[in-house]
Each structure stands twice: as structure tokens, then as C-alpha cells.
Write a structure and sequence with these properties.
Radius of gyration: 26 Å
Strand content: 15-25%
Order of helices and strands: EHEHEHEHEHEHHEHHHEHE
Strand order of the largest sheet: 7-5-6-4-1-2-3-8-9
Largest sheet: 9 strands, mixed
Bound molecules: uridine-5'-diphosphate, magnesium ion
Number of strands: 9
Helix content: 40-55%
Shape: elongated
């Protein structure tokens, strides 16, 4: 079989309304790419609606579809990791389940891959259906992380991308628990190229990422890819010490020249409260990193698999299907450690 394989990996949580609309579009695009062996892999990230039933219906009617169901909701980053871990041949294309990343652009990604690029990512030039607040905070986030992180992280770029086999293999070696995917893709490097596209509005439902979740996501990105905040504590300490020294000189001189009537309760309160605040902030910063360290040290698997259902195409084409786990209905299969 000389065709190159491309697996479209889709993480979905509660997307029962979108999937039936999205899959025919993907299937049509893959069918048109006739020199590509196109597959689709859906990951059910602990959905509580009909998503899994919809996925099974899709898989019954399309032999190129494989399904992975996690034991609970692990979040998009881990769901994607679980999916990418199951792509054993060829390249992978990551897509959102809600139709915001138009599958019709896949041929453009493939063309760039053919030209030798390893990481072809979509860059949003326009975001339909997203408010000014989300756009403004996103812009601020990319500016901050661009300043703080040594790893290049392209702005306005999400998970919509194609990874060549070697980029995929490299990504699989990064087994950290706190996974800021944009940063991990950037860390891998190789030949990167961006494809500008218009991010469409959701096909159905509403975003899983509210402002609070986005804020935590931003914290995740900054703490995963920069230790600069830790240095803030050092500089703040130095600055406070200098100010304290100047203040001490002033107090001594004042007492020498004008005597000391023991007043100064207001200034004392100000100093105590200020120092207390600064110390708490610094402790909190250290805590952010310490908590993440704790999570890494525990060495838990990244995710657990409930069901792995390989596509029928691989089985029927040859006897050497390579799915490591096979059907595992009802049984938890440890994933995430095999890379
Ligand atoms: N998603 C997921 N697990 C989660 C949350 C989201 O797999 O815990 C999927 C979701 O189904 C969608 C993608 O991640 O395919 C992006 O999520 P969403 O559209 O809510 O985010 P937004 O596009 O607003 O950033
Ligand atoms: Mg979305």
C-alpha cells in the first residue's frame, strides 16, 4: 500500500448535535483526496449526551472511522493526546468537533505537508461568533506568552493543524501532565507553516471554555512555558529592600535632627500590610509551580481508556492490524504510558 495515511483526530465533549453535520463534510473531503488513505478518529471525552451513540452510528456506516472513549472527561488537551497516541501510521490532522475549523481546508494542509512541512497550522484571521471580550483577552494572552516564553508560540493559532509522522513521534515523547498543546507543538519545532483561515461559528451548542476556564488555561500556558513569574518575586524583593533601606535612613535622620515623639502608627501599618501582601503574592506564585510539580511527580497515566474501537478498514485490508489494545468494552485500559 503506497498511499500515505492521514488520520483526522477529533476530540468531542457533548457534541451530539454537531457530529452528524460534521462527519459527512470530512468524509467528502477525504474521499476527494484520492492519493491519501484517509481515516477519522473520534475521541469521546466523557460526554454526558448522545455523543457516543452518534459516534457509533457514524462508525457503523463508515469503515474508516475508529472510536476512542475515555473513562471520564479529561479535558480537550488530554483527549487530543489520547487520540494522537492511537495514530500509528502517517500524519495526523487535528480538528474541532464543533465545525469551527472547516474540514474543507484539509487539502491545503495536505499540500503543505507534501511540500515538506511538518507542522501546518491554521491561523485565525477572523473569529465568527466570538465576542470582543474573548478576542481582546486572546490577543493579550498571545502578547504576554510571546514575551515570557522562550518557545515560539504563534499567535491566533489553536489546535487546528496537521502533524507529519516525525512531528507526531516527537510530540508523543512529551508526557507531561499539564499539557499546554500550543506550546508543545511550538517546542517540537521542525518546518512550520501557517495557513490563514476564517474561524467559523459553532455548528451547534456553546463553547466549553468560559472566561474563568480561559483564565486558567492562560495560567497553565504561562506556568508550563515560562518561569519568569518566579523571578518577579526576586525583583519585587530587591525593590522592597531598597525602599526599606531608604526609609530606614530617613527615620534615623529624622530622629537625630528632630527627636522622636513615637508617632508613626499609620506608616507602620502601611509597611506591614504592604510587606504581608507582597509575601503572599510571592508565596502564591511559588505555589502555582509547586502544585504543578506535585502533579508531575505523581506519575499518573495521562488518561484512562474505556473503549477502543479500531476502524474496520485496517482489519479488512490486511491481517496485520496494529491496534495494541483491541476491543476493551467496559474494561479500563491504561493509556498514556506507551509512547
Ligand atoms: N472538548 C473536549 N473536552 C473538553 C472540552 C472541549 O474534547 O473537556 C472539545 C470540544 O468538543 C470541541 C473542542 O474541544 O471539539 C473545542 O471546544 P470548544 O468549541 O468548546 O472551545 P472553543 O472553540 O470555544 O475554544
Ligand atoms: Mg469551538
Amino acid at each position: 500500500m503506497s498511499q500515505e495515511r492521514l488520520t483526522v483526530v477529533i476530540a468531542a465533549k457533548n457534541e451530539a448535535a454537531s457530529l452528524p453535520k460534521l462527519h459527512p463534510r470530512i468524509a467528502a473531503v477525504l474521499r476527494r483526496l484520492d492519493d491519501i488513505d484517509g481515516r477519522v478518529l473520534y475521541v469521546d471525552d466523557g460526554s454526558t449526551d448522545d455523543t457516543w451513540a452518534q459516534m457509533q452510528r457514524i462508525a457503523r456506516n463508515d469503515p474508516t472511522v475508529s472510536l476512542l472513549r475515555l473513562s471520564r472527561n479529561f479535558g480537550k488537551e488530554l483527549a487530543l493526546t489520547a487520540g494522537l497516541d492511537r495514530v500509528e501510521h502517517g500524519a495526523a490532522m487535528i480538528l474541532d468537533a464543533d465545525g469551527q475549523d472547516p474540514p474543507e481546508l484539509i487539502p491545503q494542509f495536505v499540500a503543505q505537508w507534501r511540500e515538506g512541512h511538518d507542522d501546518v497550522h491554521g491561523t485565525r484571521i477572523q473569529r465568527d461568533g466570538e465576542g470582543w471580550l474573548k478576542r481582546a483577552t486572546a490577543a493579550a494572552f498571545y502578547r504576554v506568552i510571546g514575551r515570557l516564553s522562550k518557545t515560539p508560540i504563534p499567535a491566533d493559532t489553536g489546535d487546528y493543524r496537521l502533524l507529519s509522522p516525525r512531528a507526531l513521534a516527537a510530540l508523543r515523547q512529551l508526557r507531561e501532565r499539564h499539557r499546554f498543546m500550543k506550546g508543545l507543538f511550538g517546542w517540537v519545532g521542525f518546518n512550520q507553516v501557517s495557513i490563514p483561515y476564517r474561524r467559523e461559528a459553532r455548528l451547534a451548542g456553546s463553547s466549553n471554555f468560559g472566561l474563568w476556564k480561559l483564565w486558567n488555561f492562560a495560567l497553565e500556558g504561562i506556568t508550563s512555558f515560562s518561569t519568569a513569574p518566579l523571578r518577579v518575586a526576586t525583583y519585587l524583593g530587591v525593590l522592597t529592600a531598597l525602599l526599606a533601606f531608604a526609609f530606614a535612613v530617613w527615620i534615623v535622620l529624622k530622629a537625630l535632627f528632630w527627636g522622636d515623639p513615637v508617632a508613626g502608627w499609620p506608616s507602620m501599618m502601611v509597611v506591614i500590610l504592604f510587606l504581608g501582601g507582597v509575601q503572599l503574592v510571592a508565596l502564591g506564585l511559588i505555589g502555582e509551580y509547586l502544585g504543578r510539580l506535585y502533579d508531575e511527580v505523581k506519575q499518573r497515566p495521562l488518561y484512562l481508556v474505556d473503549v477502543w474501537q479500531p476502524d474496520a478498514a485496517g482489519v479488512s485490508l490486511s491481517g496485520i492490524h496494529t491496534g495494541k489494545v483491541g476491543h476493551a468494552h467496559g474494561k479500563a485500559v491504561v493509556g498514556g504510558e506507551d509512547a
